[in-house]
Amino acid sequence: MARKKPASNLSAGEQFAGAVFFIIYALILPVAMGPLFRLAGHLLGRRIHADTQAAVYYYGLFAVTAVIFHGFLARTTRRLLEDLPEALKTVLIGLVGIYGLNAILARLSGALFSGRVNLNDGSISAQIASTPHMTLLTVLLLAPFVEETLFRGLVFGSLKERSRLTAYAVSCLLFALLHVWQFAVESRDPAYLLMMVRYLAPGVVLAWAYEHTGTLWASFGVHAAANALSVLTMLD
After folding, report:
1. Which residue, among 167, 166, 165, has the nearest Cα to 157 in the 3D structure?
2. I need a labelling partner for 17 at 20 to 30 A (CA). Which of 35, 60, 64, 114 fits?
3. What contacts 134, CB < 8 A, 6 or more positions away?
4. CA-to-CA dists, residue 56 to 50, 52, 115, 130, 199, angstroms
5. What is the C-alpha to C-alpha distance for residues 215 and 88, in angstroms, rounded to an integer?
6. Pick from 21, 26, 19, 9: which is nearest to 157 by CA?
7. CB neighbours of residue 213 within 10 Å
């Protein structure tokens, strides 16, 4: 089957609003949400529990993403329905690809990360123990939805019109960096940024799934399924 062109076709409004939202999401919210919730708690005269903060944060991201990209999401859903079997096959291939590439990278980078733990995984594991239902909803649905729409739909889809190589490189690097930069800052360990290598393979596979099928729901399916398997590993 011939490769389909991703059904991005983002309007000028979607691209502009999406770019603004992406900057806020990636750079501002991670450091601003704590102070904002503390301020809100002060104004309300009560402490806002971490569970409530997480719910407000992720539901808010989900809602804003759906509003900004509702037209694009409708178009990419129509593309999914045009060839659902191919999308499902791509999800299965994508899962195999992610775990195969991750296994190779784990062997190559074992010495590089000796003595370091993945703080992102540790944070998720702690959240599962504390608020399992909300965390599972976030990891399996809300986070993949937001990340796929922004990194594959917005970044990859927009850049691919200019350069396929640039689209892969930029979307994968930004996706990987998002998962580590906060922890590098919090731990005051710039070397922790090297941990982003572990997220490059998933970024490549997710971009491929989107490009190959032309629908964002294929990359979302791979992302959600891979997260589900990771969660099962944490629970063992």
Report:
1. 167
2. 35
3. 51, 54, 55, 58, 127
4. 10, 6, 35, 17, 26
5. 11
6. 9
7. 30
63-94: per-residue pLDDT in tens?
999 999 999 999 999 999 999 999 999 999 99
CA 81/CA 175 separation, integer angstroms: 27
Q: Which among 190, 187, 215, 192 has a CA at the least distance from the CA of 88?
A: 215
The pLDDT mean for the chain works out to 86
Backbone dihedral angles phi then psi of residue 6, each to the nearest 5 degrees? -50, 135
Question: Is the CA virtual torsion 4, 196, 124, 20 positive or negative?
Answer: negative
pLDDT in tens, 127-146: 777 777 888 898 999 999 99
In the structure, how many helices (H) and strands (E) does the chain have? 13, 0
Give exposure, 136-154, as e/b (b: 16+ Cβ within 10 Å): bbbbbebbbbbbbbbbbbb
What is the Cα 34 distance to its own chain's centre? Answer: 21
Q: What is the largest CA-CA distance in the chain?
A: 60
Q: Quote the pLDDT of residue 75.
A: 95
DSSP 199-232: HHHHHHHHHHHHHHHS-HHHHHHHHHHHHHHHHH
- Amino acid at position 209, single letter: A
Contact 190, 184 (CB under 8 A): yes
Give the pair of three-digit tokens for residue 27.
């750079």
What burial class does residue 102 get, using C-beta atoms within 10 Å of its C-beta: 0-12 exposed, 13-18 middle, 19+ buried?
A: middle
